[in-house]
Amino acid sequence: MKILITGGAGLIGSNLSSHYLNKGDSVTVIDNFITGQRKNIEKFKEKPDFSFIEADTTTFDFNKLQQFDIIYHLASPASPIQYKKHPLKTLLANSTGTKNVFEFALKSKTKRVVIASTSEVYGDPLEHPQKETYFGNVNTFGERSCYDESKRFAEALAYTYIYKFKLDIRIARIFNTYGPNMEKNDGRVISNFIVQALSKRPLTIYGTGKQTRSFCYVSDMVSGLYQLGNIKTPKHKIMNLGNPTEINILELAKIIQQLTKTSSKIVFKPGSEDDPKKRLPDITLAKKLLKWSPRVDLKPGLLQTIKYFKERFEL
Ligand code: UDP
């Protein structure tokens, strides 16, 4: 099969590329390295089935490309620190970038398109855990809005291309994901804590540390996205993908202290605007339709990630 992955140099995209290449499929990656890392795709470069285009999906002329069986549109900053740094690029990646992908898919008769949406479409949720049917509690006018609202726009765009133009699109609402190929400075909580612990700096908790998340190891996310791209046209177009084990940020900091055997202390900093107080995916749908559920528990996943950070960044 021929696979196109936008954002293929990022955490999820590079691991997904690796998965398809290992299966013998051909993979083309488009990335502009706004948040992706060159190092993540370096090892694919000598593979004949891999090709890379350095480009921005908002301006790239997709018509230059051949036909693909599946397109994964993952290109967008996804870490709060990064999308707050690049709000306009984030808004455009998820609006113009997504439209460009859909137009190309229509014209080139691509069989399937999978787009990365996010648990952020639920905002600071009032329903817990979050099911796909929940409409969310999102601020349209704040520092997270560039990401939350552009992903919501991408979903609305997908609705139009599915029902008006009959394009086969599947939407993955991706919850917090971590693992090898994370960027050292991308600002996510797990990368921050590990880098701080390994370099003997204090672990910074924003707010009280009582806010919760559920963390999915990247190989589990990849297998979910793979399944979502490979099943026959699903009855439900939107699916939560994430690990259904909830933990608060203070507990997470303590586990990382313990696993890294660091002497670093924990410090508390002011919380950030509209930071969701809790987040937990209901993955009933993905379990049923994709026959998928995460397999990697938090501690073994964190140990692999700590090993990766030590090796890649010599920490
Ligand atoms: N967080 C933290 N310290 C950090 C980075 C993040 O306490 O160094 C908190 C952040 O405020 C949020 C949670 O950890 O409550 C998860 O943040 P992250 O940036 O990883 O992703 P989010 O779930 O907010 O998209």
Name the features.
315 residues, 38% helix, alpha/beta, binds uridine-5'-diphosphate, single chain, two-stranded parallel sheet, seven-stranded parallel β-sheet, 10 helices
The percent range for strand residues is 15-25%
Q: How far from one another are the termini?
A: 39 Å
- Unreliable runs, pLDDT <50, ≥5 residues? none
Query: What top-tier CATH class fits best?
Result: Alpha Beta
Q: Helix and strand succession?
A: EHEHEEHHEHEEHEEEHEEHEHH
The number of E-state strands comes to 13
In CATH terms, what is the fold-level topology? Rossmann fold
CATH superfamily: NAD(P)-binding Rossmann-like Domain
Biggest beta sheet attributes: 7 strands, parallel
Shape: globular
Q: Any ligands, ions or cofactors bound here, and which?
A: uridine-5'-diphosphate
